Magnesium transporter MgtE (Corynebacterium halotolerans YIM 70093 = DSM 44683), 451 residues
Amino acid sequence: MGESTIEVLERIIRSDGEIEPARAAELSELLDEPPIKDVVALVERSTATRAAVVLRLLSRRRSIAVFDALDAVHQADLIGALGNADVYGFFAELDPDDRVSLLDELPAEIADRLLRALERTERDVTGVVLGYPKGSIGRRMSPEVALIYADMTVGQALAELRRTADGLETIYTLPVIDRDRSLLGVTSLRDLFTAEASVAVAELMDKPTFANAHDDAEETARWFLPLDLLAMPVVDDSRRLVGILTVDDAQDIVESADDEDTARSGAHEPLQQPYLSTPLLKVVRSRIVWLLVLAVSALLTVQVLDTFEDTLAAAVVLSLFIPLLTGTGGNTGNQAATTVTRALALGDVRKRDVAQVAWRELRVGLTLGSLLGVLGFLGAWAVYGLPIGIVIGSTLLLVCAMSATVGGMMPIVAKGLGADPAVFSNPFISTFCDATGLIIYFLIAKSVLGI
């Protein structure tokens, strides 16, 4: 089977970005052949130097589309490899919200230089987004929105859209405002297109679904997406229209948040860019802090084992079940934590529901512990006798109940403290449940076995 165009390009363009000057025209033509998604994948798999060469070889339209498709962190990495002219061109073509995401990843002096290079109108709309706090929906909205007034006719509104469409984020969902920019309703291009030109826009508008610009971006995106809307208006505290949030931007917000939660639940920081294009030291930094923290926290488990050393010496058979009990406790706690963290993100659970969640998870844990405890009791009894069976069965029951309760409460407690629930999720819960489960195990063993 012959090589694909992308495979040919990967072979010809070295990782250090070096190519034969005579082959530049040939490579440029080759890059126009594959679908844009394949070129994006090529850039994502490349070092910053090779990616910069690929972007320069692309036609202007395709290079802008590829650069726009990259994550902001990846874009920031490419800034140093691209020439000033390329950087300014790509930056100017980004939407205001995407510009702000890129600026957040750049050193202050570079960010300031890029802003000053923008035309005044583009700098002003970018400044609107920059004015909102990080993490707010105002930081992720587009301020480029059509100004459709309720006292317009359909003909006037369509004429306004034709005049300004090229500079707008979307024209399919249209906020309707009064002359003070106060949001009155929403209409759609379909409604305008199918109505008579003389009909007033006010007759076509529906009650608006909207968000405040200071609302949390992730929470807003999560309740917005299930509504199956293409976009929704964003307003200030006086309900004046300041921008619009599109469904694709909301999806990006949720995807980024889910990636972060997944990474932290696996005890590392998110890379925020494709794996193969991430510098090696950045991958190390994303993991080392968590490994150090977990190594220190694991000393708690060591201390528990040291405390009950005499108990283990008196009944060596107890050591055989330690992996089973710690693994079961950690897994039970992680299951509860993952479920509740997801429920928090979706808005199904709130901070004030902590007692209700604890009671629910306690009952779930007791049910799971009963089932596992019976199996553990029968297996241990058959091999090691009745007393060991009682110890193992009782421990599984209590460990599951404890782990599920703690695992369910921990994300809510973390959110109440202003921390990311994912940070207090799987890694810390596993360590806590290991140590606590061992304490329960040895206390039951001492009581039942009389040691």
Observations:
- The CA atoms of residues 92 and 119 lie 8 Å apart.
